[in-house]
């Protein structure tokens, strides 16, 4: 009888200890690995929530920057970390949903190697034109491009980036052709747009330049209008709903296999920080949409965007040589 009861007794003893371990999380500092250098928007949001979560949970949340290779360095590092919730990854969705299609030798599976934790910001890019182009709406830009084949150009933050794909899809959907001018990052792309060296681009954080009259906002990717520029229509409103596929977000992931209870606790704490009025204000001031999702919703967004970009890359034939 005792031999039969022994496994049951052992299992009964283990169940409370597993639950207690989840309740005790975190019992040591948590590292949030960020895929960009210090000073960027992802980094700023990471430091904002790290401070809030440290105060809420009584443990230190450390932000560690591991930039490079379109976020692949940070992603590969976290993929290899213990699946215990103490090493997290914060990055732009393009690393997981676009990079695998346009970069060679990506060292991870974007769906299988990570456990979704929380979405931290929604990307809603705006089509921006330099006033010298002489257009104030999408209809005017398309007409200008058709009247001047191969004469206009657009900047991006690099080959295979969101703005690159958006510009290529705009060309395809409107039967036009504007030349792509890739830059190494957002700052030089916007600087040359402001200087009139390029004609248009896609960006989410230039509302101040629009309001000052330095740039014209022609359309918003969508699906909703931008909270920073609510007067600017979406592409769907203007008859180009396909443009909505070039969307994105910032999110937090843990290594695959991280316990569900730990993921749930982390999600609740991230969302608590992101729902604070001051946090919403900061995120929107950066040009992003404030969001708070469940791990399941983030996982669904990842899979949908990954599928969409596979179709778009095949359609636009974008690649990085």
Automatic annotation (TrEMBL):
Family membership: Belongs to the UPF0065 (bug) family.
Pfam families linked: TctC (PF03401)
Keyword Signal: yes
CDD domains documented for this protein: PBP2_Bug27
Name of the protein described by the UniProt record: Tripartite tricarboxylate transporter family receptor
Lineage of origin: Bacteria, Pseudomonadati, Pseudomonadota, Betaproteobacteria, Burkholderiales
Keywords from the named record: Receptor, Signal
Signal found in the keyword field: yes
Organism encoding this protein: Pigmentiphaga humi
Gene3D superfamilies hit by this protein: Bordetella uptake gene, domain 1 (3.40.190.150), Periplasmic binding protein-like II (3.40.190.10)
Signal peptide: 1-21
């Amino acid at each position: 009888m005792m031999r039969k009861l022994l496994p049951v007794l052992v299992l009964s003893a283990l169940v409370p200890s597993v639950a207690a371990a989840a309740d005790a999380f975190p019992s040591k500092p948590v590292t949030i690995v960020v895929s960009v250098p210090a000073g960027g928007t992802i980094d700023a949001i990471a430091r904002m929530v790290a401070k809030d979560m440290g105060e809420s949970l009584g443990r230190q949340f450390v932000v560690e920057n591991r930039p490079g290779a379109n976020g692949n360095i940070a992603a590969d590092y976290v993929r290899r970390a213990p699946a215990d919730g103490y090493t997290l990854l914060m990055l732009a969705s393009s690393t997981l949903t676009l990079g695998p299609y346009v970069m060679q030798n990506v060292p991870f599976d974007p769906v299988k190697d990570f456990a979704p934790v929380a979405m931290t910001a929604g990307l809603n890019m705006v089509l921006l034109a330099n006033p010298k182009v002489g257009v104030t709406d999408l209809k005017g830009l398309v007409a200008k491009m058709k009247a001047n084949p191969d004469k206009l150009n657009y900047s991006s933050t690099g080959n295979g980036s969101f703005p690159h794909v958006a510009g290529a899809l705009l060309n395809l959907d409107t039967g036009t052709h504007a030349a792509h001018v890739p830059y190494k990052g957002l700052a030089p792309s916007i600087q040359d747009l402001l200087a009139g060296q390029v004609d248009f681009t896609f960006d989410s954080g230039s509302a101040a330049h629009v309001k000052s009259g330095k740039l014209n906002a022609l359309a918003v990717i969508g699906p909703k209008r931008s909270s920073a520029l609510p007067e600017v229509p979406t592409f769907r409103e203007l008859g180009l709903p396909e443009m909505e596929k070039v969307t994105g977000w910032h999110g937090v992931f843990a290594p695959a296999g991280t316990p569900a209870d730990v993921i749930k606790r982390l999600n609740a704490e991230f969302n608590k920080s992101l729902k604070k009025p001051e946090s919403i204000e900061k995120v929107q001031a950066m040009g992003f949409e404030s969001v708070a999702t469940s791990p399941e919703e983030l996982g669904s967004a990842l899979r949908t965007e990954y599928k969409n970009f596979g179709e778009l890359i095949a359609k636009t034939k974008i690649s990085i040589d």
